[in-house]
Design a protein that fits this description.
Shape: globular
Mean pLDDT: 95
Number of helices: 7
Strand content: 15-25%
Helix content: 25-40%
Largest sheet: 8 strands, mixed
Number of strands: 8
Structural class: alpha/beta
Length: 231
C-alpha cells in the first residue's frame, strides 16, 4: 500500500480516541480547496513510507493508541488497503476511514468485514454544485448517493462533513444539503483554512457570522451539527 505520511498522534481526528493518522496518495477528485495537494496533483514517490515501517510503529504503540485514521487523497483507491487493515485490526486498533464516497461497494465490503469501525464522508456541496466543487464537470453522482444512503442506514458509526469555502458555498446550499442528509447522526461544518498546499490558490473562508448562519440553517434538519475549525 502506498503511504506518504504518518501523524503519530492526534486527539482530534477520531472522535473519542487517541489515534494516529496514515496518509495515502492519489484521488479521483480534484477539489480546488483540497489542503493536501501534494497527495493529489504532484505525488512524489520519494516520500513513500514502507508499510512495514508503519505496522512496526503501531506494534510499539499498542498501549498508547486506541485507533488509526486512514485518510488521503482517497484511501479506497489503494489496492492493498484490505491487507493493511487486517494487520491493524489484529493489533486491536479501531479504524476510522476518511472517504469522498465514490466507491460504495469497497466501503461497504470493508465495513462488513469488520475492518472499518467509523467512516467520515465528505459532502462536497449540494448535488447541483457537486461537479464544480470537486473539479469534475461531468461528475456522476450515483456512487455518492449510494454511499450517503448506506451510511444513513446506521450500519456503521459515521459522520458527514463539509469544508465550507467562500467561493463555492452559499448559505442557501446548506438547505439543500441538510434535506439530502436529513437525520444524519453527526454533521460537521469545517472552516476552510489555507494550508499552503492547495490545488488552487486565492480561496477564502467565510466569516464566523456566516458560518453560524449556515449552522442554524442546517439545524432544522440535522440537530447534531456543529462547527469545526472556526475561530
Amino acid at each position: 500500500m502506498n503511504i506518504q505520511g504518518l501523524q503519530k498522534l492526534t486527539l482530534l481526528d477520531y472522535p473519542g480516541k487517541v489515534a494516529c493518522t496514515v496518509f495515502t496518495p492519489g484521488c479521483n477528485f480534484k477539489c480546488p480547496f483540497c489542503h493536501n495537494a501534494s497527495l493529489v496533483t504532484h505525488v512524489d514517490p520519494e516520500n513513500n513510507i514502507f508499510m512495514e515501517e508503519v505496522t512496526s510503529f503501531l506494534e510499539k504503540r499498542q498501549k498508547v493508541l486506541d485507533g488509526i485514521c486512514i485518510t488521503g487523497g482517497e484511501p479506497l483507491l489503494q489496492n492493498d488497503l484490505e491487507e493493511f487493515l487486517k494487520q491493524v485490526k489484529k493489533m486491536g486498533y479501531d479504524v476510522k476511514l476518511d472517504t469522498n464516497g465514490s466507491n460504495t461497494e469497497k466501503m461497504r465490503y470493508l465495513v462488513e468485514e469488520k475492518l472499518v469501525d467509523y467512516v467520515a464522508m465528505d459532502i462536497k456541496n449540494s448535488p447541483e454544485k457537486y461537479g464544480q466543487t470537486i473539479g469534475i464537470s461531468d461528475c456522476d453522482m450515483k456512487q455518492i448517493y449510494k454511499s450517503v444512503e448506506y451510511l444513513l442506514s446506521g450500519i456503521v458509526s459515521y459522520e458527514f462533513r463539509t469544508t465550507v469555502v467562500k467561493e463555492f458555498h452559499e448559505v442557501e446550499d446548506f438547505q439543500r444539503i441538510s434535506e439530502w442528509i436529513k437525520g444524519a447522526d453527526r454533521y460537521y461544518l469545517q472552516g476552510f483554512k489555507d494550508s499552503g498546499d492547495l490545488i488552487c490558490k486565492g480561496l477564502h473562508e467565510h466569516t464566523k457570522d456566516t458560518m453560524e448562519k449556515i449552522l442554524e440553517q442546517v439545524k432544522i434538519n440535522i440537530p447534531n451539527v456543529s462547527l469545526r475549525g472556526v475561530d
